[in-house]
Amino acid sequence: MTVTRFADYKDKYKHLKLDRDEDGILLVTIHTDGAEVYWGTDVHDNLSSVWGDIGKDPENKAVILTGGGETFIDREVPIPDKGWVTPEIWIKLHADAKRLVLDHLEIEVPMIAAINGPARVHSEQALLCDISIASEDTVFGDHPHFSVGVVPGDGMQVIWPTVIGLNRARYMLLTGTEIDAQKALEWGAVNEVVPKDQVVTRAYELARQIVKQPQLTLRSTRMLMLAELKKVMLQGVSHGMMTEGLVAIGTGWQPTKVEESA
Q1: Is residue 258 part of a domain?
Q2: Residues whose CB falls within 8 Å of the CB of residue 23, separated by 6 or more in sequence, listed in order
Q3: Phi/psi class of residue 97: alpha, beta or left (left: φ > 0; alpha: ψ in -120 to 50)?
Q4: Positions of the chain with pLDDT under 70
Q5: Range of the domain at 71
């Protein structure tokens, strides 16, 4: 396996702040100009690429994922005019979407989501982590898909039924219903709800507890626990993105314009 070192990718990504401590705990903060992230293709590309770098770095012992500012991922770049997408463009989006999810699941060390606020865009990035800690003001939703005429085929249709059950997930995705932190805790989407200023601190507490185990134990346990999810996610995202693209091209409507990454 190709090995990467932290110095190789620490400052590589415009929308990701990467900090690793002496215990090998890597904090990944998604941001736009140091504040709340505005999701777009440049952020998408950063995140889908960094998972590969992190996964190939043997010095990483655990990963914490959080958002900049007051939200996890809750805003998008302005929606473009209709009709810009082509099959050639969607093939690229299809590949990027698979990396965003599947490379996340290829990371062989435990991952903790420190959900520091509303997560109405790409909440699967938090839910794919092994442990999820949410702030009291966290709200989950799925704004970029069905409510604006787009098929939720990028993994949302897999992860939400997995964590809260099929009927609850279908209702959420079809009606645009949002789930607050306490409901997410009750339904099993998150493991703990804490005050906003304690989310990352609590994630570090858990990470330091976890990394006391031998690396062989850490990596083997993570891989074992994810084996079944990886199977269904591989099939679900590949088929789902093709379905989403077919409908997007057919209706001339898509939520995010493809641009060259910054």
Answers
A1: no
A2: 61, 62, 207, 208, 211
A3: alpha
A4: 1, 78-84, 253-262
A5: 6-251
Reply yes or no on whether 124 is catalytic.
yes
CATH number, domain with residue 197 = 3.90.226.10
Q: Whole-model pTM above 0.90?
A: yes
Residue 94 lies in a domain: yes
Phi–psi pair at 139, nearest 5 degrees: -135, 130
CB 112 within 8 A of CB 207: yes
Q: d(Cα 137, Cα 151) in Å, to the nearest integer?
A: 27
Distance of alpha carbon 30 from alpha carbon 240, whole angstroms:
25
Chain segment 161-176, per-residue pLDDT in tens: 999 999 999 999 999 9
From 124, 136, 205, 260, active-site residue: 124
| Exposure class string for 134-171: b at 16+ Cβ within 10 A, else e | bbebbbbbbbbbbeeebbbbbbbbbbbbbbbeeebbee
CA distance 58 to 66: 21
Helix axes 215-251, 87-106, angle to 10 degrees: 160
| Burial class of residue 112, CB neighbours in 10 A (0-12, 13-18, 19+) | buried
